[in-house]
Specification:
Helix content is 54%, strand content 17%. With 218 residues, it is of the alpha/beta class. Helix 4 crosses helix 5, helix 5 (92-103) packs parallel to helix 6 and helix 6 packs parallel to helix 8 (144-158).
């Protein structure tokens, strides 16, 4: 499973990268705004800065909702760096744009996916990644993990190369369960990745080892 971090914060990206487990980054306009990154030139510069930290796929989202402008924005993003993946919403024009980018050899991430049918359309159009939102489905009392499992099964049935990127992953159990059911990628905040480190028995065991060492060495 690949680990992506879902943030635009450069310090968090560096911390995850330094841990040695980071494979890529996902961002969106909300995450950019959260970091105070506003204006076209500043956003593009920030994407370049992320690409300088992580040697992996970096999802950069288009703002447009119509096909022509999606294509324009996506091509501009793709020119920034070879690792840029153009993030496109699951809409009619979005699917058309994914097909266009695929034919041009530009990698894509189909975002805001909430059903197996949407994921099937994205794969048919040639999306590199499809991003079903686990947490947001849980918010409306729907099983987000069941959707991941459905999509993984459908893609396996027909050999689609599109990778299942579990998004809106909010806690460690989400991540572990996504791994159990075969998601190719998970994207989440830094605290979820570092949360995998934690177990009380590890803390207790380490404290005992250190105490025993101190006793043995006076």
């Amino acid at each position: 499973m690949k680990f992506f971090i879902d943030t635009a914060n450069l310090n968090e990206i560096r911390e995850a990268y330094d841990l040695g487990v980071l494979d890529g980054v996902t961002t969106n306009p909300s995450l950019m705004a959260k970091e105070g990154i506003v204006g076209y030139d500043n956003v593009m510069k920030h994407y370049k800065a992320i690409c300088e930290i992580v040697d992996g796929d970096i999802s950069a989202e288009v703002i447009a909702t119509d096909f022509e402008t999606m294509v324009k924005e996506g091509e501009e993003l793709a020119q920034l760096h070879p690792n840029i993946v153009v993030k496109v919403p699951m809409t009619k024009d979005g699917v058309k744009a994914i097909k266009y980018f695929t034919d041009k050899g530009i990698k894509t991430n189909c975002t805001l996916v909430f059903s197996a049918g949407q994921a099937l359309l994205a794969a048919k159009a040639g999306a590199t990644y499809v991003s079903p939102f686990v947490g947001r489905l849980d918010d409306i009392s729907t099983d987000g993990l069941n959707l991941i499992e459905q999509i993984v099964q459908i893609y396996q049935n027909y050999g689609y190369p599109t990778e299942v990127l579990a998004a809106s992953v909010r806690h460690v159990m989400h991540l572990v369960q996504c791994a159990e059911i075969g998601a190719d990628v998970v994207t989440c905040p830094l605290n979820v990745i570092t949360g995998l480190l934690n177990h009380p028995l590890t803390d207790i065991g380490l404290a005992k080892f250190l105490a025993d060492h101190k006793k043995a060495n006076g």
